[in-house]
Amino acid sequence: MEKKPLYRKINTRTWGVRHNDYTGEYRHQRHTKAVINCDAPRESMHGTRRYGFDYTPLYKFLLSRVGRRWDEVFSEAVARLDSPEPVFWMVALRESEQKDYVRTDESSYFSGLFVDDQGLLAIVAPELTAENMATFCHCCTHSFNGIPYGQRKD
Questions:
Q1: Residue 103 and residue 90: Cα distance in Å, rounded?
Q2: Residues 6+ apart with CB under 8 A from 112
């Protein structure tokens, strides 16, 4: 039995979807007759970023495997992913890379993870919960490990 992948494809072609890249600056200049001083050479309009993937199932998978052997968790995760890179957005292999929490979306946060000296997956700040997370803006509903906090008051 094949297990489900640890990512989802999301719609990126909907009108108004933005991806925090340079939206429109070059687009509005390329067909003008004015001479534009641009140091960058004219390049392909195809970017190198890969949009349209939601890795929330991966983050929940990693949190559910805290306390287990890292080698086993990593091999299972990579077998169910399109590339191993998203694992390391949440898991730090070196002490200098450890973070208490990781921002995965506009208002979604997950606990930072690391591999301890015994080779086990562990949480960087286990005392951190949704109740004691700071709200960074009052207009959005934030979530920490999938639990909403800082809900909007209408």
A1: 9
A2: 90, 92, 98, 99, 100, 101, 102, 123, 124, 125
Considering Cα of 64, then 92, then 110, then 81, what sign does the dihedral take?
Answer: negative
* Percent of residues in the chain assigned helix, strand, coil, to nearest 5: 20, 20, 65
Q: With CA atoms as reference, report the closest residue to 81 among 60, 57, 64.
A: 57
Domain boundaries, the chain: 51-149
Q: What's this model's pTM, rounded to 2 decimal places?
A: 0.72
Q: Is the predicted pLDDT of residue 118 greater than 70, yes or no?
A: yes
d(CA 149, CA 102): 16
The dihedral region occupied by 108, where left means phi > 0, alpha psi between -120 and 50, and beta the remainder, is beta
Q: Is 14 or 3 the better-scoring residue by pLDDT? A: 3
What length is written for the chain?
Answer: 154
Phi, psi dihedrals of residue 92, rounded to the nearest 5°: -100, 130
Looking at residue 89, what is its pLDDT?
Answer: 93
Q: Helix or strand or coil: residue 149?
A: strand
